[in-house]
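Hi R.,

Here's the input for the flavin-adenine dinucleotide complex you asked about:
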Amino acid sequence: MPRASEVTGELISELAERVGGRLSQSPSDLEGHSRDESHHEARAPWAVVRCQSVEDVQAVLEVCRRHLSPVIPFGAGTGLEGGAIPTRGGVSLDLSGMNRVLRVGQEDLDVTVEAGVTLSQLNSELGPLGLFFPVDPGSDPTLGGMVATRASGTMAVRYGTMASNVLGLKVVLASGEVVTTGGRARKSSAGYDLTHLFTGSEGTLGVVVEVTLRVQPLPETVAAAVCPMPDLRSAVTAVIEVIQLGIPVARIELLDEVMVDAINRYQGTDSPVTPTLLLEFHGAKGAVAEQVREVAQVVGARGGRLEEQATPEERSRLWERRHHALYAAKALRPHARTWSTDVCVPISRLADCLLETKAELERSRVLAPIVGHVGDGNFHLSFVLEEGEVEQLKEADELHSRMVERALRMGGTCTGEHGVGIGKAPFLLHEHPTGVGLMRQLKATLDPLGILNPGKVLVVEE
Ligand SMILES: Cc1cc2nc3c(=O)[nH]c(=O)nc-3n(C[C@H](O)[C@H](O)[C@H](O)COP(=O)(O)OP(=O)(O)OC[C@H]3O[C@@H](n4cnc5c(N)ncnc54)[C@H](O)[C@@H]3O)c2cc1C
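And here is the predicted structure with flavin-adenine dinucleotide in place:
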């Protein structure tokens, strides 16, 4: 594929001609689009375009094709694998201004939104209608970004990931052509599944401008519980049993004792410093009570106890604590940065994968609290790295590689939800030895000039 050119005065002046004041080269805009929430090195784009319409997206692509300039779609910048970092310079295509909820289908339980609508914005529009969108990463990303990373989060165990909640997309290809995929029907056998080709493509195959999603009715009853467990093995075993028994929990999250301690320090709480499960239950009143009873039995049999969080305030404090876990980890060391990485394994291998990883961590000098959407077999390490500590980074890097290799050996994946971005790219060939060649061909077909988010997902394209 051709290499992208360097920034030129013509590129900038042609862009300015096409998109006017929506083009910016202000230091704060360049800095704000140089990084995401990952540990990867920041690099400023040459310019930022704050798109307001499909025509803006097409105009940027048209100019950038002629100049062989990279185009890097940017949602809210909450990604954890460096996907939105302009590693080769280029134009950061900010979609956050395309933020209209276009349609709410109350009868069909679906919505169509522009790509820049954020998760919190969508849920605050849906709430008064008795609906919600259940994919909950705990950050506040755009729906376009969530499609692009095939995001999931705490409620995937019950409601599925973005992959199971996206019905259709509108995508602008590198050529400028607009393609509509999928539709509003709940199922379809019509042709290749283009919706799921773009879902998880991390801005490398097209720019998502519109998303049609399934939504859910707000549950009649919600209950939540905290379960302090005697040790990590009993916590993970209890999770596996809950899933294998088919108890339809809405959330089942794990915090190891290091993360509980971090949250206590960060939030001023005094939870017992022991591996802990956080749960939520959705459904009719009787069904929820039954689920709570069943989980209490499982947890009790493993030496833990279930403490119900009775009020809505207690519940929201509980999930706020969980959602701030990454920042709590960061606060463990002064001037630290975090490197949050995830793997996912079949549920039957979760205990082996997690306990082996934990044992290795304990033998190392690296600090890395563990959290997990464990009902899916997915867990995260948040390495807490001190600035300038080269040895820490090297050791974290080795632990990370071994964790991924372990997950792959156990039939898992190098990333359950954060995406490949920069950090997982070296592992893709290992995970999909026969698939990467086809991925390369798809990339070359859809983006023959290699302008869309180059250097991400497929390092082999260089
Ligand atoms: C505290 C915290 C907790 C998190 N927890 C979770 C979690 O539990 N589960 C989870 O899945 N993620 C989690 N994340 C990661 C993050 O929120 C997701 O990856 C999210 O989906 C990124 O969306 P964004 O809008 O911020 O995208 P960005 O970070 O802006 O971009 C991410 C990638 O998508 C591409 N992209 C963005 N918009 C578009 C578009 N419209 N068209 C094409 N490509 C596009 C970018 O080029 C980039 O490759 C967490 C992040 C933080 C900070």
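One thing worth noting: The CA atoms of residues 305 and 389 lie 40 Å apart.

Cheers,
M.
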